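Input (structure):
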């Protein structure tokens, strides 16, 4: 049985492994070669940055596990609206998903959906009206996953090589 639970400090080494795996996957999709390879990515520093961000922005980190084996995680927070954002947007309480990673060997088994349901429930309980998530454009699998879970495209950022 898959359980979704809050992050504990003992989970840290496995989360580093998940981030290395995810980074390698994203880098393999990058046609411009700008995303750091898993060998050039400092997952430990990145994870410390993510944990610090979650602490400062009322964040959450949930773990998917089965029989004490970690299968994936999701991290999100509730950032405060920046003053400049309020110039052209109505104020609203909005959650933001920073990372979702499921180990490659456990994908396509509903674990990502369970993690999404848990964080959506958490955001709802904190009074959020919307949830924002970003997706690397070449990662069409992740984009399809988010669409399947009810998320719609909102903004598109484009890049041109000079």
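Output (sequence):
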């Amino acid at each position: 049985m898959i359980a979704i639970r809050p992050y504990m400090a003992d989970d840290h080494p496995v989360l580093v492994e998940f981030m290395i795996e995810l980074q390698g996957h994203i880098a393999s999709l990058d046609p411009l070669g700008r995303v750091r390879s898993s060998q050039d990515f400092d997952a430990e520093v990145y994870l410390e940055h993510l944990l610090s961000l979650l602490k400062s922005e009322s964040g959450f980190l949930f773990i998917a596990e089965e029989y004490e084996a970690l299968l994936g995680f999701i991290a999100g927070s509730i950032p405060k609206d920046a003053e400049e954002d309020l110039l052209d947007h109505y104020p609203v309480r909005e959650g933001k998903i920073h990372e979702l990673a499921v180990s490659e060997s456990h994908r396509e088994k509903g674990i990502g959906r369970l993690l999404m349901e848990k964080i959506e429930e958490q955001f709802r309980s904190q009074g959020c009206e919307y949830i924002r998530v970003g997706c690397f454009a070449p990662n069409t699998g992740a984009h399809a996953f988010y669409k399947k879970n009810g998320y719609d495209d909102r903004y598109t950022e484009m890049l041109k090589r000079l």
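Notes: The first strand starts at residue 3 and ends at 6. The radius of gyration is 16 Å.
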